[in-house]
Amino acid sequence: MSSHERKQMKRRSFLVGAGSLTLSGLISGCDRNSGTALKVRLLKDSIPAQILDEFRQGLEQSARLDFVAEAQLLDLFTRLQSMQKKSTDRGMRSPLLPFGGQQTKAIADLVTLGDYWLAAAIRQGLIQPLNPKQLKAWQQLPQEWQQLVRRNDTGQPDPNGKIWGAPYRWGSTAIAYRRDKLNSNDLKPPTDWSDLWREDFKGRISLLEQPREVIGLTLKKLGLSYNTPNLDKVPKLKENLRALNRQVKFYSSNAYQQPLILGDTWLAVGWSTDLLPLARRYRQIELVVPQSGTALWADLWVRPKNENSPDTPPLVQQWIDFCWRPDIASQLSRFTQAVSPILVSMKPDQIPDSLKNNRVLLPHQDIIKRSEFLLPLAPESVKQYQSLWAENIR
Questions:
Q1: pTM of the model
Q2: What is the Cα–Cα distance from 231 to 237, expressed in whole angstroms?
Q3: How far apart, in whole angstroms, are the C-alpha atoms of residue 371 and residue 374?
Q4: End-to-end CA separation in angstroms for the chain
Q5: Which residues does 335 contact at the CB level (< 8 Å), separation at least 6?
Q6: Pick from 175, 173, 180: which is nearest to 283 by CA?
Q7: pLDDT tens digits for 232-268?
């Protein structure tokens, strides 16, 4: 795994503590003697505690809810890999060895996975597809989120592919800026990616150290897609990247917030889950989602591959459908710094004002339509992005 991939996996690790998952208290309230269990490994703070408690109370039969949170997406991807390794080791163990089956932990029923890693999980045989006919709320998902998880067996997007995950929350790449610094210098606030090239912001910008994000926003500025496959055919791309690089004071995927807090930079491009709590803590920091559209990401429920359980267990179906209930989707969106995809398909009068008025958490529909998920690229395209980044950045 490259250093770039590790940085991408660690994104969105800084989340607000309000409504975080208190696992021990909720699990202790479940019937541990029940033969029915739901074992979930999820991203820390991606599910509010009250939602899990409400799910437990609504079950017709008592069940053991084994929910364990991991701090970062990298930990969850590694856990998926270790589950398959343990499963293989268990299958190779001789039945003559006493207590052999007790030496490994059972495979989880569901794991949180970032959409960025969906293709790798499919290629490596870490997960198995879901049956949308068993998910009552599948059709409530907007088409963009349905298509995100439709992949072929190599992990590439395929409109006729299998369903490899259930998106339960999403966010975007946004611009944060220091209102006080701009006001004191009589500068207009940014509204779109093209503002990053303004002369009055030269040396005052911090960017993510991510080729897909930086090259992608440059493509967007040129009126093209984040997922443009052949960069060699894009006129003025290198020229624009070099000009942007001259604007930037700081590149980082983990520490891009600090220069903004200190006032060393006036603008920062970052992930909404990082920036929303930052703006609440520091009143001088404002956020905007670019008008021409931006990069989107999603957290998914995926089923680890389990040869002994090819069908989706009822509790798994119930949990995914529960997360997609409009009232639960609204709660999840209020307390986790990310928004449920269900809200995108809800009527405006059904969305709570606290969410409807937060245009970073839930951008206008026209901006969402102009935004894109970062889809996997062919190997030759990946090389172009890496080469262009190395040649024109830093």
A1: 0.88
A2: 8
A3: 10
A4: 22
A5: 18, 19, 48, 50
A6: 180
A7: 999 999 999 999 999 999 999 999 999 999 999 999 9
